[in-house]
Amino acid sequence: MSWAWRVAAVTAVVVVAAVGQDEGGGETSGGFLSGVMSGLSTLPYLGNVLRASVHPLYQPLVGPLQPSSVIREDAQEGGDSGEEHCFGELGCLALPDAFFHAVHRPINLPPYRREEVGVVFTVHAREDPQGTPVPAMHVEGVLNSSFSARRPTKVIIHGFLDHTGVTWMLDMVRALLAAQDLNVVTVDWSGGSQALYSQATANTRLVALEVAHLIHFLQDKAALEPRHVHIIGHSLGSHTAGYVGERVLGLGRITGLDPAEPFFQFMPPAVRLDPSDALLVDVIHTDADSIFNFGAGFGMRQPVGHIDFYPNDGRSQPGCDSLARVPLTALTDGLSLLEGLDAAQKEFVACHHNRAAKLFTDSILSRCPYTAFHCASYTHYLKGKCVSCGSEGSRCARLGLPADRWRGTNNTKQVSLYLSTGQGPHYCLYHYLVRVAVADPGGVGGSAHGRLRVSLITEDGDIKDFDLSKERPLVLQRGQSYSFFLDHSEDLSSATEALVHWRYETDLFNPLSYCVLFCDTSLAITRLTLASVDTVAKEKQERKIVATKGKSAKNEEDEDEVEEVVVMCHKQGRSVVIVESEAMVKVVASPLCPPANLSTLTADATTTTSAFTYPMELVTAGLQSLSSVLSAMT
């Protein structure tokens, strides 16, 4: 229901403004309105909105909502198309026609002056975790910081209304330094981000000039190699990173964390983040319900990288529709109460949008692989129809920091990848394919109607339940196999035992499923097969590193054919396990079980016998039984 809260908040502000104006701007009314707005403006996050600098174009609309002390009197007017605005050593920016569109980008403004945006870099390293601030206008100060060109460099750029003191940036810096020996540079452009959105989008171009200037300076003075630079941008920061990539040849990587949609979606590549901006561009979409389609999303749906990740279809993130997450976030995020409160405000206002940053941060130290797969749609993914990495390994990747292990190249066609995540605080889920081979011991065919549940038993004896018929009863044709795509917050790949529970149910609209007198309500299976999708994908990703050390392509292909699954069957090796209705039977992994491999698991339900047709004698017998019962009742 986060969209409802957003609409309510905006409506409340508009109503307050209207009341203040309708009452004629009297002293009492004006004092009350001014007091309310001044009080709200002290809040760390919401206050950014109310304190935002306003372009003269909007002053008649927004002016009444702001204290007079923050209304800009000297904001730059929009220039003519093609007019250049120069910024000293940084160079000049034009306002080309490509940056204007009547629908997608109806306002094209020049950036603020350098002094107004006031970009500040903070250089962090393991020996200086708190960081050393370096004003962008005195970039030479970076040489007196802990920066070392011998280490890889991460640059983090925040988005609209933020600053470098926000909790998600602090958490990301800590996680990166804990994981690797790095230079981590945060970019504070709060002087330009805390403006109206249209002006903030314009200011991103100036921020990009400042970051590109820093990289070029370090190239000249410290022998920094751009291919070792990874820029991580959230929201507007994603597109800022793209502008940097335009000006830094051979930039190593850009990660876009839910790139902002308004003024960027469906615009030309020069206006937004795109694959040409770095050697690898990976993007995480978490808030893609377009605001232009009456959704509440702030992020793009359009794929803009080499690999675009869509956790939970890139739309509704688990847990974001519950207000209970807000106090929980205050307790779990950050290292202090103030950091927790800052994170809680963002959860309340933009939970889906900020989830991208949380997923990336969690991926840094997580042992769970965050494996995503290329698929036609999220619906296909949930059905387990596309959990293969492909022959080249480019159809799967790991979301977050390990995305650079992707086996594609920058010449590979853009790949959209899907995965499911949980509610947090650790969001990664492990994924499994379970395949149930239904037996036909009597050779009579037919189907079994009912509900099926499987419980995997871990090495520690814990039982993890999965309802395979949660949405509706299953119709299982005898002699066929059925695949089910499951996820869990724990790694269950070592499970070698399972409990199979079956409950027969009739189908109201199928008389042949009615159980009258002589009928079989049991379920017969030959085996249950468990495959950890993430484990197989992780092994394929790691082979990329092995291959670079001289391993032949032929050997890689040979290894691809060797994929392990756990096959469970009757504990004494019997060919068929009979599960009576309302009963539970244990199956175990055993050398006596019939073999299986992953290639059979990734297919749809596969018939293991010839195509089934209902034998006429069964139909006749069923109708005769039903007729005899009806006759007895009358």
UniProtKB/TrEMBL annotation:
Lipase domain ranges (all copies): 85-423
CDD domains assigned: Pancreat_lipase_like
Keywords: Disulfide bond, Secreted, Signal
Signal peptide range in chain numbering: 1-20
GO MF annotation list: triacylglycerol lipase activity
Keyword Signal attached: yes
Domain of life, per lineage: Eukaryota
GO cellular component, one term: extracellular space
Family annotation (InterPro entries): AB_hydrolase_fold, Lipase, Lipase_N, Lipase_panc, TAG_lipase
Signal keyword on record: yes
Compartments it resides in: Secreted
GO terms, biological process: lipid catabolic process
Gene3D superfamilies from the UniProt entry: alpha/beta hydrolase, PLAT/LH2 domain
Pfam families for this protein: Lipase
Family of the protein in this entry: Belongs to the AB hydrolase superfamily. Lipase family.
Protein's UniProt name: Pancreatic triacylglycerol lipase
Organism (species): Chionoecetes opilio (Atlantic snow crab)
Gene: Pnlip_0
